């Protein structure tokens, strides 16, 4: 996150392999099925998220400031 606003169209969406395999395909599989996205490959899901980011709003934007990690997290409506 930054004070400087950058166009979302220039961002790349990357889902870590472990996040895709061990979280999205297990713990969140029901939600992916509801959204009609359960059968997508990782690259296809990244493309869907990238398109949604370009045309939608971010929800639940959060910055975690811990000594061990500092991720920015957000939700989008799929």
Would you give an account of this structure?
About 0% of the residues are buried. It contains three helices and two strands. With about 80 residues, it is of the alpha+beta class. It has one domain. It is globular, with a radius of gyration of 14 Å. About 35% of the residues lie in helices and about 10% in strands. Strands 1-2 form a two-stranded antiparallel sheet. A hairpin with an 8-residue loop joins strand 1 and strand 2. The two termini are about 20 Å apart.
What are its keywords?
78 residues, alpha+beta, two-stranded antiparallel ribbon, 3 helices, 12% strand
**Quick one: how many beta strands?**
2
- Structural class designation: alpha+beta
Helix content: 25-40%
Main beta-sheet strand count, sense and barrel state = 2 strands, antiparallel
Question: What order do the helices and strands come in, and which of them pair?
Answer:
Layout: H1 17-24, H2 29-34, H3 42-55, E1 59-63, E2 72-75
Antiparallel strand pairs: 1-2
Please give a quick description of this structure.
The chain is α+β, with helices and mostly antiparallel strands and 78 residues long. The protein is 36% helix and 12% strand. A two-stranded antiparallel ribbon has the order 1-2.
């Amino acid at each position: 996150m930054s004070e400087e606003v950058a166009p979302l169209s220039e961002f790349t969406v990357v889902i870590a392999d472990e996040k895709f395999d061990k979280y999205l395909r297990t713990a969140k599989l029901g939600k992916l099925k509801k959204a009609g996205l359960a059968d997508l490959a990782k690259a296809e899901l990244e493309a869907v998220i990238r398109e949604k980011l370009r045309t939608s709003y971010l929800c639940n934007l959060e910055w975690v400031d811990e000594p061990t990690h500092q991720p920015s997290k957000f939700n989008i409506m799929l």
